[in-house]
Amino acid sequence: MEAVRLCCPVCRSFDVTRRGTHRRSRRTLPIGGKAVFLSQHAPRVQRRRCGAVRHMEVRFAEPYATYSRAFARYALELSRLTTMKDAADHLGVGWDLIKDIQKRDLQRRFLRPPLSHLRRIAIDEIAVKKGRKYLTVVLDLDSGVAVFVGDGKGAEALEPFFKRLKRTRAKIKAVAMDMSAAYIAAVSKHLPSAAIVFDRFHVVKLMNEKLSDLRRQLQREADALGKKLLKGTRWLLMKNPENLDEAQGERKKLDEALTFNQPLAEAYYMKEELRLFWEQPDKNTAQRFLDQWLEWAWASETKILRDMANTLAGRRWGLLSYYDHPISTGPLEGTNNKIKTMKRQAYGYRDMEFFKLKILALHESKFALVG
């Protein structure tokens, strides 16, 4: 009767025979600050077909775990209220055990997030080791939840995501991303019916980078007076006009630099004009606005404006898609900032799998402003 109840813990076959017991001790909830261990003689079974000997599972602990489920729940609750090191010190265990408990819990809940409900997503990469290592993050724009974290950047990093997405038959309507050729090719290949929306933040950022390059070029070529006027204007050129600090004299300093240099002034005002593209009342008006901006830029003698116009002209369909699907990677940029904060608070992560699981669970975290 006893042998009938026993089964193989791997294949669940009842075709087994008993092969003695194995003594196991597992940590459980402390009592009065004292460590408590559960000691048990767990039965071993052997499959008749293959001869493999296995240890029977117990209900109060995960397979191969050195602690009980109750201890794991207590450790998880502590680690939500304090750091892993503090939780480990309180329980009298190593921090790596607390990390193992967290990792098991995250794997159970977030290793394979559901994708069938996705309709609008954002894609972007984040540098995790000073530009030497990148992760690609996919965010569900409707819920604000990260649904995928891939190694590296570019089309290869997204392949596992698209493979899973295809099996779920999710109906993606729109994808927000930057103007990366690799992302465009990957999304066009795997999601041919989804609209690609180029993010306004990345477009303006590209324009700011070109404006900064122009400022450096003009500063190298300027005389002593010109160098003095251009010094310290890098961030002023990138700031929105409404954010310039009058008390600090930022607007006056910027006006002096623009008055002195006509090509810089032209590029700056064209940059500010481009920001208005996303403020148009409808798609037809936006299309006329973009055509006019491109004509002005092509007619300019400033090379960076002509280069920018060529770039935008080849991507105009993705810019105008904003008026069909008004989305951006803004929520994902916010998530990236939380990722950087989380990494900084932990002084980095050596276990990259654990780090990616923490990103997938980031929507559960709370960030409070102190001060």
What does this structure look like?
The chain has 371 residues and is α/β, with parallel strands linked by helices. It folds into 3 domains: 109 residues, no CATH class; 117 residues, 2-Layer Sandwich (Nucleotidyltransferase, domain 5), CATH 3.30.420.10; 119 residues, no CATH class. Helices cover 49% and strands 17% of the residues. The protein contains 16 helices and 8 strands. Strands 6-5-4-7-8 form a 5-stranded mixed β-sheet, sandwiched between helices. Strand 7, helix 6 and strand 8 form a beta-alpha-beta unit. The longest helix is centred in the middle third of the chain and has 22 residues. The N and C termini lie far apart (67 Å).
How do the helices and strands line up, and which of them pair or pack?
Blueprint lengths: L1 H4 L10 E16 L2 E14 L5 E3 L13 H13 L2 H8 L3 H16 L9 E8 L6 E7 L4 E7 L3 H14 L5 E4 L3 H10 L4 E4 L1 H22 L2 H7 L3 H5 L11 H11 L1 H14 L7 H17 L3 H11 L2 H5 L9 H16 L6 H9 L11
Parallel strand pairs: 4-7, 7-8
Antiparallel strand pairs: 1-2, 2-3, 4-5, 5-6
